[in-house]
Amino acid sequence: MANLTGPTWNLNADGTVTVAFPSEPPVGLVLPLDEVVQMLEKLGEYRELMQPPVAATYSPGQPVSAIPDPAWFVEGEMMQGQSLLHLRDPRFGWLHYLLPRNEAERLGRLLVEQAQAQLPGPVSGKAS
After folding, report:
1. Domain-by-domain residue ranges, the chain?
2. Which residues contact 27 (CB under 8 A, 6 or more apart)?
3. What CA–CA distance (Å, rounded) separates 12 from 6?
């Protein structure tokens, strides 16, 4: 049996994505934007069901690929008075999180503390 690698992905000039699967005969798909979005949503749903699950807690200090200054919006959820946080990820669109009141308060408090914290200054030392 041949040693086949994973699929190859290509963003086309017309905005579609081509996925080519190494097989005999070769198989490829051309996906328009709406199908890419649908695929991302479905893969996210499947990932939630897969093992091992995404870690329930985050370990600070890990290297991450962060989105700088994302667009966001917060609105009150009318039924239970929770906070509905919307964050825009340029890769996945608008993501929506429902925060219970106590967690919204805790998040707000932590953000204020970080925003008001004094930035570390230059280290003073003896010049050589």
Report:
1. 8-49, 72-116
2. 20, 21
3. 19
Are 2 and 26 in contact by the 8 Å Cβ rule? The answer is no
- Bridge pairing between strands 17-21 and 8-11: antiparallel
pTM attached to this predicted model:
0.78
Report residue 83 CA to chain centroid gap: 20
DSSP class of residue 87?
E
pLDDT per position as a tens digit, 29-63: 999 999 999 999 999 999 999 999 999 999 999 99
Q: What are phi and psi of 29, to 5 degrees?
A: -130, 145
Among 80, 79, 73, 78, which residue's Cα sits nearest to residue 96?
A: 73
Alpha helices in 1-128 (DSSP H): 33-49, 101-116
Judge contact between 84 and 75, C-beta under 8 A: yes
